[in-house]
Amino acid sequence: MRFTRAETRAPRRWGAGRVLAGFGLATLAALALADLDLSRPDPWLTLRGIGAGLLSPDFADPAALAHAAALTVAFAVCGVFAGALAGFVLSFGYTLRAIRGLCICVRSVHELFWALLLLGVTGLGPLTGVLAIALPYAGIFAKVFAEYLAEADPAASRALPRRTPPLSRLLWSRLPLALPELGAYTLYRLECGLRSSAVLGFVGLPTLGYLLETDFRQAQYGAAAASLMVYLALILPIRHWMRLRLAPVWLAVSVWLLARHPAPPMGDGALMRFLGDAVPAPIRAGDWAGLLPWLGRMLGEQALPGTIATLVLSQLALALAALVAVTCFPLIVGRVTGRAGALMGHAALVLARSIPDYMLAFLILQVTGPSMIPAILALGLHNGAIIAHLMGRQGDALVPRLRADAPRGLRLAAWELLPRLSGNFFALCLYRWEIIVRDSAILGLLGIATLGFYVDAAVQELRTDRAVLLLVVSALLTLGIDTLSGRIRARMRLSAPGMRKPEPEAAEAA
């Protein structure tokens, strides 16, 4: 048999066993390097206090809760719609390398990192919160919108005259077909924006996250439980109160709320001062010869240990997420757990994925003390619930094999569903890998020595040049993992049905 040149150059397919072995060895190495010490002398005391707070939440200040909840929604709505508008414009030129590179850069930096940088320019005001969400979301929207437009049915485009300009052809043929998907994806991003908005409270913006952090640090667990319950009351039914036809109303109300919120005045030349401070210190001092030693110290003393800690944390979190997904996806399959069990499993997974991993890590940190344990648990549970929920829905839709001895219950999950969903499982885990790495870096703000820890220290010391350098390292690390993940998926010949659908679990991977 003779092979064509293309066939002889095709890379050999990687089997699941090979990939599992590689990630297993990486997980063992991460375990050896991880900080897994429990530093709290009596975690049960804190647990009892949190449990008592959850059983008797303190709604003594409903005005403060309502105000924080309203601002949480307002930041999310304004930030997401600003990002959607910018992303929509950028999507028309996404094929250009410069625009694509710009979108990759802005979306590879976490919202909390953007907030930390913007605090020095726009201050602790509404503009900081809106831009912190809008900037990374603009890059995400541009990528996804461009893909939706490119995949629209080309039949309408072929009906136009041959000399129709490309932009007119896009606007009049592909855009009308893609509008339903664009709207549905924007509504999903509002759920993500609500999580981001709540977490922005941890850097001082007056959202529900600010109340939660303040009450926990003061050991007022009843008040903290009230803030958490209000947040869940907002995000769990979001598909019911946030409808596309009501979006203009929500946007108008959100703009009005933020306009009434006092904003700190921007100092004269604040932006130029920030840009000047972002230049490495040796260059500002005119000492070009000191640039390389400065870079060497920064990379060796902060970037390298921060990167190692970020990779260690993300690897253990990815392993836990995979374990949670494999264990929990049968919970929402009616043929495995029954109708009542599937409803309870669905509620548990929705709850786990609705609480932001940063917020969940902060809550666990109050019990375990500072180590990698809170971050690993938070990232693993949050991302594992997302993967498990999507796999469970796919498993519930599978047509069972028609056999008299077909397995049931847990045997059905182990011997039929898991083998048939294994390709989707690997694809979803690899999609979430890049997101886990990005979030591992930001969890350094909680005191874990990842890249975020060093970024936060640089911001607190007003060393903008150091913070920008470390953010560049964090973005490059995220992009590197994303590239590696894509290559592994390609070598495994993986595709994940539903990954492009605007559903919470699927669209998050975009």
Query: In which range does the helix fraction lie?
Result: over 70%
Order of helices and strands: HHHHHHHHHHHHHHHHHHHHHHH
How many structural domains can be distinguished in the coordinates? 2
CATH superfamily of the largest domain: MetI-like
Number of helices: 23
Largest sheet: none
Strand content: under 5%
Organism: Limimaricola cinnabarinus
Subcellular location: Cell membrane
Transmembrane segments: 64-92, 112-135, 219-238, 308-333, 435-455, 467-485
Membrane topology: Multi-pass membrane protein
What is the topological layout?
Blueprint lengths: L4 H5 L6 H18 L9 H13 L6 H30 L5 H11 L3 H12 L3 H25 L4 H4 L7 H34 L8 H10 L3 H15 L2 H4 L5 H14 L9 H8 L3 H4 L6 H38 L5 H21 L2 H12 L4 H25 L11 H34 L8 H10 L3 H28 L12 H5 L2
Keywords: Cell membrane, Membrane, Transmembrane, Transmembrane helix, Transport
Subcellular location: Cell membrane
Main location: membrane
Note down, in words, how this protein is organized.
- It is built from 23 helices and no strands.
- The longest helix has 38 residues, at 291-328.
- It folds into two domains: 24-42 and 291-399 and 407-510, Orthogonal Bundle (MetI-like fold); 57-277, MetI-like fold (Orthogonal Bundle), CATH 1.10.3720.10.
- It is globular, with a radius of gyration of 24 Å.
- Mean pLDDT is 85; it is low at 496-510.
- With 510 residues, the protein is mostly helical.
- The chain crosses the membrane at residues 64-92, 112-135, 219-238, 308-333, 435-455, 467-485.
